[in-house]
Amino acid sequence: MSMLKRFFLCFALLFTFLLEAQATHIRAGEITAVRISQSGLRYRFTLTIYRDTEGVEFGQGGVFNFGQGRTIGPTLDALRAEAVDNVISEVNIGNNTSIITIQFDHTFDAPGVYVVSFTEQNRNTNIINLGGASSENLAFHVETAIRIQAGDGLNNTPILTIPPIDRACIGARFIHNAGAFDADGDSLAYKLVTPLQDRGVAIETYLPLDDPTISTISEGGAGGTLFEIDPITGDLTWDAPQFEGEYNVAFIVEEWRFSVLNNRYELIGFVTRDMQIVVEDCNNERPELEIPLDTCIEAGALLEAIVRGTDPDNNQVLIEAFGGVFDLNISPAEFVGLPDENPIPRFRDQPAESLFKWNTDISHVRTRPYEVQFKISDNPSDPDAPSFTDFERWNITVVAPAPTGLTGSIASSTSIQLNWDDYVGANFNPVMQVYRRVDSFDFDPENCNIGIPANSGYELIDELPINQTSFLDDSGIRPGVNYCYRIVAEFPLPSGGTSYASQEFCITIPLDIPAMTNVSVEETDETNGEIFVRWISPLEIDETLFPPPFRYELIRYDGFNSTANRTLVTSTTDTVFTDTGLNTSGQAYNYRVRFYDVDDNLIDSSSTASSVRLDAFGEVRSINLSWDADVPWSNQIQSDPYHLIYRNRTDAAASDVDNFVLIDSARVTIDGLRYLDDGSFNNTPLLDDREYCYFVTTRGGYGNPLIPSPLENNSQIICIQPNDDVPPEEPEIDTPGDEVIITGPDGLPLILLESENCDRLSVEPCAFANFTNTLSWTVNDVDNDISSFNVYFSETGSSDDFILVGSSRTNTFDHTGLSSIKGCYRIASVDRSGNESSLSDAICFDNCPNYELPNTFTPNGDNINDTFRAFDQPNGRCPRFVKSVAFQVFDRWGGQEIYSYNSSEDVEPNIFIDWDGTDKNGNVLPSGTYYYLATVTYDVLDQSIATEEFKNWVRIIR
């Protein structure tokens, strides 16, 4: 702070702390908005101003600006003339303060982001942190921003239900909450800002309340002054004021909405509150509130709760409640004093009790809880002493009722028919989500246990229109499995909301095929690994139609669920087999069984089941484990919810590498398929200089009494060092050996590979734009701890442009869905501790451009060859990867230009040219031969082929 500013502030403090403020005008205010048209862009803005009644009248020079060229003001008559119903309301609320409310309607011309503001001279005088006595020369300015955009739907700004003038006591922590409520259910965030005096003009003399010239104390006496706003709850805290007087601060309430299109939350507007805090000397203790615990309530139920207020000084207390629940159009909440249920807040003897009552409705359902702000104020016995206040917040989540009537039947050997009742909240257009798991999972869908619990094993299999009350599940249904279902109603954004889950329905199709039960890694090795495989014979098959004994063929594939490298492992009449000679260290495998009757007729096959794959992540003196398997049974069953964790080096010296000991178990129905080993099992922290090895035994089941449970299967053994900070080796991307070296945009060489995409273009239509670039690489895994690879991509090849586009657990990657072939890649190795290697050298693919022009056209109006147009014949003769075309036509001597076109200068560029045989003035040219020059610019990395010139003759035949 400058010496001049400090001198000015100290001078102001000396004369204002001891004098009663001589207010000039505006103390506080904000602007809120409501969209009042369902189809148009018409909004109603409400300006709320808190005025010092000892100052000048409101509206002297005030200007309301809609941010789109329209302004109202600067006279009171002008404001009133444009106000809704020509009304400006003013209500005196005491303490030399009145509330002024005025509304304006405005229709925006088009979507966009608009900042709506109000500016008026002047603020009231002697605002200490705005320059003291000179604050009366500062304009008051507030802004509200709204975004109008396709896809946003209707949007209203948050409303602020708690007044912006609040009182504080010297030396006591001050808390203010605006009681913001968003009717659309948007997510709100809070941020301190500098008060403004005009659009984009901050008040230079503003000092935050923790500035040492404003305050250096706190209520507890420890540390300096705290001045902050909680970005989530909106609690504005000043701990603590040091001097009497008036202070102004400003903050914004942002509203964020999830964009399904962009898959992220986006800022869609904000409201600025400029508020005033009046600090007084209080010889008083803070009153206290007792409020209910945060809760959930099912829509349609009555919520009642007691709020109790007490005061250590035995003063009377006033209990007030604020929040959007009291302003709802349908069934708003009530807050009444007890015992007489008087709705008018008043001071009462302590302890005082008030009753909150809310008969909730299905229209109240939303994801975010409703916030109710309770405020308690005491009434000191000294009539000149200021009141002391406190705030408490209560969160209420209104949950949609559970869908009812879920039942079902077997439709076929591979499908299940489900049915349920019409949903009570169908008018609000939720979707019905259908969840499925193997085996029953019991939980109570109530008491805030909304939707489907995490780690319950239920998987979302479909989302249906709310008016659909049946569903045929034919996705992967196999005999012998106990399939269990629940349905949940999910309400649309922006409000959102998830219902309680329905009651569970389970059904089992008779076991008339083999059922896989074990794919267990018995030996971990890169070349000599072993997997134990077991299956159950088809116990409920019709042996008259399919006579035994059965013969089984065991088929193996690479990966969790792929069909790569199909291998017939064995043909047997047994139901167990140990598969050997495998790379169980480096990859997972999956198996299925095909079975034949006594006459060697193929009957059917089992579902596939994979081995368990264990991953590890090294942290400081701890190891994070996670595992997975793709199996037809459930590995998260309530009858056996624990998976077993085994580890070596459990001896005191952590030197025994050969013996694995059961160290703990993971409750997977609660925590999922993960476990953190921090040495808690024997109170011995892991050492950073040792490599620890693990395997996990999973437990699962089909939920079918005919199939034994639990089914136990081992993962491979994995080894990792805690706190490993050594990155792995960088990969080297495979090249075929016939690459081309070009110079990149930053002057560095780039390796350009031939793309298989170019060969296929000869058979693809002209509009084809769905390419895949395929990469493969090698790496020297020195420490045998590489867990994955990160793939980086740059469209330009510049070293500054590479961004992460994917990751791979194997040494290959397909970059799919590309509209262009052009681009460069670099790969990084990632080890199990999250260390990333340096990036590989870049390799690039380039577009393969093509452009061809004819030599004759016939502009005679028969719609056949009427324009001079680049070839767009199917496949080979299409224009490919063209950025722009510059085209000139000259007379037959090549001297005078008679026509030109440049697609890069056209609002709607046409790379095909489509010259109609007229000159630059639109005059029809006669039949004859003309000379042309076409310069085509291609979208390529290789700048040596970035442009191509076409010089030739074209004949017009009419």
Automatic annotation (TrEMBL):
Annotated transmembrane regions: none
Going by the UniProt record, its keywords in alphabetical order are: Signal
**Limits of the Fibronectin type-III domain:** 400-496, 513-603, 606-703
Q: Name one Pfam family in it.
A: CHU_C
Q: NCBIfam families from the xrefs?
A: Bac_Flav_CTERM
Leader sequence range is: 1-21
State the protein's name. Fibronectin type-III domain-containing protein
- Organism encoding this protein: Roseivirga misakiensis
| Gene3D superfamilies reported for this sequence | 2.60.40.4070, Immunoglobulins
Highest taxon in the source lineage: Bacteria
